[in-house]
Amino acid sequence: MSTVRQRLRVARDARALCDRAALEADLSRIAREAGPSRDRHSLIVGRVKQALAEGRAVARSWLIEDGAGSACAERLSGLMDSVVQALFGHIVSDLYPRLNPSSGERLGIAAVGGYGRGTMAPGSDVDLLFLLPYKQTAWGESVVEAMLYVLWDAGLKVGHATRSIDECIRLARADMTIRTAVLEARHVAGDAELIDELITRFDAEVISNTAAEFAAAKLQERDERLGKAGASRYLVEPNVKEGKGGLRDLNTLFWIAKYVYRVRDVNDLVAAGLFSAAELKLFKKSEDFLWAVRCHLHFITGRPEERLSFDLQREIAIALGYTEHPGLQDVERFMKHYFLVAKDVGDLTAILCHALEEREAKPRPKLDRFLTKLKPRRKPKELGDFTVEAERLNVKDDQVFARDAVNLIRLFHAADQNGLALHPVAVRLVTKSLKLIDGRLRDSPEANALFLEILTSKRSPVVTLRRMNETGVLGRFIPDFGKIVAMMQFNMYHHYTVDEHLLRAIGVLAEIDGGDAADSHPLANEMMPTVRDRTALYVALFLHDIAKGRPEDHSVMGGRIARRLCPRFGLSAAQTDTVAWLIEQHLTMSIVAQSRDLSDRRTIQDFAKLVQSPERLKMLLILTIADIKAVGPGVWNGWKGQLLRTLYWETENLLTGGRDIGDRNSLVEQAKTELRAALPDWSDKTFAGYAQRHYPAYWLRVEPARAEAHARFLRASCADGCKLATDVKTDAFRGVTELTVFAPDHPKLLAIIAGACAAGGANIMDAHIHTTTDGFALDSIFIGRAFPDDHDEMRRARRIAESVEQALVGDIWLFDIVEKRTKGAAAKGRTRPFEVEPEVTVTNAWSDRHTVLELVGLDRPGLLYELTTAISKLNLNIASAHVATFGERAVDVFYVTDLTGAKITATVRQAAIRRRLRAVLETDDRDEAKAAK
């Protein structure tokens, strides 16, 4: 649609949203008929609010009908124009008429900022510049004040300034924010000549010869903004306005283009040589989509909400007409479109930056920050069809890919090998040559060998792979990867899209491979140099989530894809088997470590049977660590690392023929001997008496350091004659705080402890329950650390310990406290948009001595307390509990026996357990839980 036709359409739409003349007539009538000024003001404000509400309702209905986001933003801007014009006309005609105006009694009103561009969201600020010829007059002050009070009281957030033309020019020279606002100035009401004079002088006195300064400032401002909002455009809860690839990036593009190229309309960017016709179309398409999302966000929430949070994504997806496809929810399809648009915005930004460089309006970039520390092996002299310009790799001519499609892979390989950034000209040509990536190129042995070298590079493979992904080469060269590009997983666990997660995982593996960050994963760093086939490990990690978004189990399907792709990459049959196995089992080690009793010999035996070889165990450990760390910030912690290390060493010991895991008696005696050596100040009689208090299971489960701490804790407690005692200890490396509870044993003990922790806002991560031969319980509860400082964390832990003691002696009534605390947390909970089908597994196959309950459901505050309470009412003893949360998905595993210490074998009894625990998982109704109590 031509610009003129578009403006006529928007003007017509604005009249449909609000008839300016009719509104001004209504305001004038109210001014004549109303009584005191206070009543008149209220009626005026009421009529303005009515006009805005009615206009926005129509705009929303049109947005739902046609889905045109840019048009909606323009309509809302036109609505605001009508309101401002009508209000100004009423004020200067009815309240402060100029009977004999002086030369100073002139006032122009300009829209600036986003409003100046002629686009607004329902909750956008109204940015106004009240422009004076030279200084303020009493008349002008009265008009501005009257307008602002009406707009404020109508519920609008008005950004305003009252300045003369000289002041605007002076301030614009000194302040880049003011300069940007004036750049967007557009006449709305009042004296148009003043606005025209400002624009003319601004062009001549501010813009002239300052293009480079403005461009550099805006790009630096963008970098700082993205640093605050999140530098990745693939965050699963993106900020539509301020985030990377959002509307502000498009605004920045046009600000710079308007300033540097002196264009007035986005359509002029083609004539200026900045964009091609196709790129201009992409700009408009991206802007239209982002405006549709932002307007829906504001309409749905009733406020200027800019973050596309989980609880809003599905509603907006439905409003925009997305539907479910096999393997993908409606919301996941919508978010994939969003991230593809964000990528397009990034491409447009790169095009602009290159154009600015060519005009020398922007300094040329240095090498990628990841590559600057990597020295080239040699100074590149001759790179075949490529050249080096200003330390960036470029193509010799625009036929380089047409002559030989393998050059599309060679380009990235050469960039990696020589530590070079890519020239924008080369990047642009790559994106225009994607159709050359066909079956012949995919089957080319040379192309696949080059790709494998990129993937396993000792330099920084994630940088090159991300470039390949951004240009579209990676998805075309590996179509299975292309299917997961920009794919979002609608859950709270994963912080990034699937493709971004895979690339970040490769980055973590390269970090381990390079020996970095040994403090956070020491075992992986120690094991990596001993891995015999690092190529298979890199390929497995790169492909481990390749089948996400399909109806089948992604681990099983991913193994099938690997068996098809690995021979193409040039891997042997043995390597292919290893890669497929690693993909099929890539979740297993994490699940076993976090939700199984690692002191139960059956756990280690079953896991060892699955792994079968120390080499596979080593590779699976490293892959698991890289996978978890790449999920998002804060997901990896020392506690998970310790669990994985314990599982690794126990399994490795069994696989390599170490101590016999079945020789319980010798292990018990060895543990007692080690503890005796650690307590030289104890007499033999004292130690023998203490040792008799523990069952064999205690000696098999507890490591020496904790056993010593327990011994000293119990001796001190018993010396005081206490039958109830608690102790707390922080562990900064593992990110947990250990709460030790010594109390008379009874079935509800863990439920009471869980309730006290829930009341104190503590998140239980694991629980080891030990029963003594004299009827006491010695429980170790591991809670997530809340404070980095040990003193703060210890104060918190002691408060929780005091709550546990008070609950155990009956001084506080836990249920009411937990209910009050968790109700407030649930009301603000972020898990509400999600659904997790409850699963209850009751099995005797995972342990030789216990029945194992695995409970999966939607996480919520107080869930562990409810589950342990229900288990105690089922007359079950809990031997150990393992609590894991994956975003909104809670996976709680309990090792239990009946009150006689036996497994639960009766089918009827197992069915009753399933029914009761499933009922807890299915309800979030605290009143129902209270009634059950």
UniProtKB/TrEMBL annotation:
InterPro entries: ACT-like_dom_sf, ACT_dom, HD/PDEase_dom, HD_domain, NT_sf, PII_UdlTrfase/GS_AdlTrfase, Polymerase_NTP_transf_dom, UTase/UR. Its EC number is 2.7.7.59, 3.1.4.-. CDD domains: ACT_ACR-UUR-like_2, ACT_UUR-like_1, HDc, NT_GlnE_GlnD_like. GO terms for biological process: regulation of nitrogen utilization. Keywords: Hydrolase, Magnesium, Multifunctional enzyme, Nucleotidyltransferase, Repeat, Transferase. Uridylyltransferase (UTase) activity is inhibited by glutamine, while glutamine activates uridylyl-removing (UR) activity. Residues 738-819, 852-933 form the ACT domain. It holds the Pfam family GlnD_UR_UTase. One of its GO terms (molecular function) is [protein-PII] uridylyltransferase activity. Modifies, by uridylylation and deuridylylation, the PII regulatory proteins (GlnB and homologs), in response to the nitrogen status of the cell that GlnD senses through the glutamine level. Under low glutamine levels, catalyzes the conversion of the PII proteins and UTP to PII-UMP and PPi, while under higher glutamine levels, GlnD hydrolyzes PII-UMP to PII and UMP (deuridylylation). Thus, controls uridylylation state and activity of the PII proteins, and plays an important role in the regulation of nitrogen metabolism. Has four distinct domains: an N-terminal nucleotidyltransferase (NT) domain responsible for UTase activity, a central HD domain that encodes UR activity, and two C-terminal ACT domains that seem to have a role in glutamine sensing. This is Bifunctional uridylyltransferase/uridylyl-removing enzyme. It comes from Methylopila capsulata. The lineage of its organism: Bacteria, Pseudomonadati, Pseudomonadota, Alphaproteobacteria, Hyphomicrobiales.
